[in-house]
């Protein structure tokens, strides 16, 4: 059965970040961390067990409007990731009985993860080079979130909008 985690980040105790017209602001794409994005997005990670069927995964992907699920043990140990791309690839090899197969058969087992303290630019590079669009966030061995390349691009666009507004206000006075 699907289950979900909601981890708590150490940084949730921290004060919210403030913006200022400093060199840091101008370089915010270089210094923004995954943690900052998770504070907005939340820590819920939809997961399944590796014995769950591809049929269940397909249903959950559709119901939640997402592109990937983390595969974890009952104890929360990360075992893999399954994305719509894995299902499409498997379909190309033949669709007979595919919905009844366990997701462990087609998931990616070598999962690349990141930490909440990683800079977004570093994680974007990892995803671009690895050619995947999802990355689980792990802190002290526990899953604390999952971010997508889309989340990061959206976050950066909002930051750029905010910075441009700040600049305009500074010029106009
Ligand atoms: P995606 O672009 O995320 O839909 O995934 C493309 C392929 O990369 C699929 O085979 C996924 O199982 C795999 N994949 C997705 N995320 C990761 C990750 N963080 N680490 C390793 N492989 C991944």
Could you characterize the architecture of this molecule?
With 173 residues, the chain is α+β, with helices and mostly antiparallel strands. The chain has one domain (32-172): CBS-domain (Roll). The protein has 7 helices and 6 strands; from the N terminus they run E-H-H-H-E-H-E-E-H-H-E-E-H. The strands form 2 sheets. The chain has a 4-stranded mixed sheet. It has a two-stranded antiparallel ribbon with strand order 5-6. Strand 5 (134-139) and strand 6 form a beta hairpin. The longest helix is centred in the C-terminal third of the chain and has 24 residues, at 149-172. The termini are far apart.
Question: Brief overview, please?
Answer:
By secondary structure, this protein is α+β, with helices and mostly antiparallel strands.
Give the topology.
Layout: E1 3-6, H1 23-26, H2 28-31, H3 34-41, E2 44-48, H4 54-64, E3 68-72, E4 78-83, H5 84-92, H6 120-130, E5 134-139, E6 142-148, H7 149-172
Parallel strand pairs: 2-3
Antiparallel strand pairs: 1-2, 3-4, 5-6
The structure holds adenosine monophosphate.
If you compute it from the alpha carbons, what radius of gyration comes out, rounded to the nearest whole angstrom? 19 Å
In terms of structural class, how would the helical and strand content be classed? alpha+beta
Instruction: Supply the number of structural domains.
Output: 1
Poorly predicted ranges: 17-29
Q: Distance between the terminal alpha carbons, to the nearest Å?
A: 57 Å
CATH architecture: Roll
**Helix/strand order:** EHHHEHEEHHEEH
Largest sheet: 4 strands, mixed
Mean pLDDT: 87
What CATH calls the topology is CBS-domain
Q: Which cofactors or ions or other ligands sit in this model? A: adenosine monophosphate
Number of strands: 6
What characteristic shape results from the CA principal axes? elongated
